[in-house]
Structure formats: structure tokens, C-alpha cells
Design brief:
The protein is α+β, with helices and mostly antiparallel strands and about 280 residues long. The chain has helices at about 25-30, 70-80, 105-110, 145-150, 170-180, 185-195, 200-210, 220-245, 250-265; strands at about 5-15, 35-40, 45-50, 50-55, 60-65, 85-100, 120, 130-135, 140-145, 160-170. It is about 40% helix and about 25% strand.
């Protein structure tokens, strides 16, 4: 099962002066690497870290921004720290990376909905296509691109990585945030993919999310990757195992055997051959 992850997040919170005592906590939890003071392009003043910013405007409104793999980590921490009542998500990008035999072929044969302004970027003599569905100024914009060419990383079994990315702003971003907090972001991404492209592309991505394995790419910081894997384990794998365990006695025993085998213990909890405990 492939997780749908947050690849960019921009959050604001009005009247942050009421919660100014939380600022050191936010800086500590939402910034990583070398931290230094600076001014954001929007005029907010605050602190930068690797792929992140925490600051405020003169009117007291808080701004938190994070990108790449760090955005997923920051999103998890924002949900626990920032009071949600006066919080607004200005932008959020949801992404899924799936295995395909030929990413360029998928991208160039995807049929976008005619309602949207679409742009296909296709190099003449090289690989690395990108499809945009939606105008740059739109509050909802889909991007599909050849992640293997962009990153230089390819699946060990051959083929290429296809990145499907949904860039959302304003009310669409707030909706995406609510879905993410319900752990329903995959359905939210698929809903927009179906609306903005064709049925074949929608079904391909849907099936990949349900049955594929998460690609090991974008490992900017090992700790960040580990935290994302733990997030995937907690919110995707564990619920799936729980549903299987509750299905019937047979699937419950198979789940128990699988976990015992992973941990290297018998069904009684002691080291040994788990099969011998059946």
C-alpha cells in the first residue's frame, strides 16, 4: 500500500500573540538543521531551518511553511501543537509516487478534462515529461511528472517512478487538511484525479495506491525518512492489520503468525520457530 504524503504545507494562524508562549515549541518542533533568523518573501519575520520557516507578520499572524519530505513531519506536529480554531491552511500539496513501466508514456497519453487549462512539457530529445492540469493561479492544480528523471533514482526492478501531485490553495487546502486529519487524504487525491483526468489514469493510480509498495526515494535526512515510515506504519499498516485480525479466526491467526515471524518469536512470545506454535 502506497501512502499519500504531504509535500508542501503553508499554515497561518491569526492573533498568534495569544499563543506567543508556544513560539519556542513551534520553532523547536517545526525547524530542523541550522536555524537562523530571516525575512520571508511575504514580509513575515522569523526563523529559517532546512526546508522550513516559522515567523509572524506585524499584525501578529503566524506563518509556518515546510516543503519536501519535511512537510509531512511538520504537518504531524502542527496537528498536535497549533490550536485549530483560528488556523488556516494557505497551501498544501499531496503527492503519491507509483511504479510504472514508462512514466513518459503514461503522462503523454493521459487525457485531461477539457474544463481545465492544461500544459504538457515534453523534451524533444530527452526523457522527462510533465503534465499540468489547471492554471498556475488555480486553487487546485494537478501535476504528473517523471520522478525518476527528475531525481535520478529508478526502481531496482526496472521501470520508472511516476509522481502524481495535487497542489491546493485556500478553501481546497483547508478541505485537504480536514481530510488528512481524518486519514482520508488518499480518497481526496483520487477524487480530484478522477475529476481532472481520464478514467484509465484514475484507475491506474487507485490500484497502485492499494496494492503497490512505497518507493524509497527523497531520503534527504535519514531521521525524516524513518519518521515518515513510522507514520505510514501507524496510520496505514496497523489499521489494515487490525481489519484483517477482526475479520475471522483464520485471518486473525495469520496476522499473529506474520507478526511473530517479523519479531523472531513464537506465538507464546518467546524466541523460537513461530510455526511450531500453531
Amino acid at each position: 500500500m502506497i501512502p499519500v504524503l504531504i509535500d508542501w504545507i503553508t499554515v497561518t494562524h491569526k492573533d498568534w500573540e495569544r499563543y506567543d508562549w508556544l513560539t519556542p515549541v513551534v520553532i523547536d518542533r517545526c525547524l530542523t538543521g541550522k536555524i537562523y533568523q530571516g525575512k520571508h518573501p511575504t514580509g513575515a519575520r522569523g526563523w529559517y531551518g532546512d526546508k522550513g520557516f516559522v515567523g509572524a507578520w506585524d499584525n501578529g499572524m503566524l506563518l509556518i511553511q515546510a516543503s519536501s519530505a519535511w512537510a509531512q513531519v511538520v504537518a504531524d506536529r502542527i496537528a498536535d501543537i497549533i490550536p485549530q480554531a483560528d488556523m488556516s491552511v494557505a497551501r498544501i500539496d499531496l503527492q503519491a509516487t507509483v511504479w510504472v513501466a514508462d512514466a513518459d508514456a503514461i503522462i503523454t497519453t493521459t487525457v485531461p478534462n477539457k474544463r481545465y487549462k492544461c500544459t504538457l512539457i515534453r523534451p524533444v530529445y530527452e526523457r522527462g515529461c510533465t503534465l499540468y492540469v489547471g492554471a498556475p493561479s488555480s486553487d487546485a492544480r494537478l501535476r504528473m511528472y517523471n520522478k525518476s528523471v527528475e531525481s535520478g533514482q529508478y526502481p531496482p526492478e526496472g521501470g520508472e517512478w511516476l509522481r502524481v501531485e495535487l497542489q491546493l490553495r485556500n478553501r481546497y487546502a483547508d478541505r485537504a487538511w480536514l481530510n488528512w486529519r481524518k486519514r482520508a487524504q488518499a480518497g481526496f487525491l483520487l477524487e480530484h484525479l478522477r475529476k481532472m483526468t481520464d478514467e484509465r489514469t484514475y484507475r491506474m493510480v487507485r490500484d497502485a495506491l492499494e496494492h503497490g509498495e512505497e518507493p524509497v526515494i527523497d531520503q534527504d535526512v535519514e531521521d525524516d525518512w524513518t519518521e515518515r515510515r513510522l507514520y505510514w506504519l501507524q496510520h496505514t499498516v496497523v489499521p489494515a492489520l487490525r481489519r484483517l485480525a477482526l475479520h475471522d479466526d483464520y485471518t486473525r491467526r495469520q496476522v499473529a503468525l506474520a507478526l511473530a515471524d517479523i519479531m523472531g518469536v513464537g506465538m507464546d512470545g518467546y524466541p523460537g520457530d513461530s510455526d511450531s506454535q500453531v
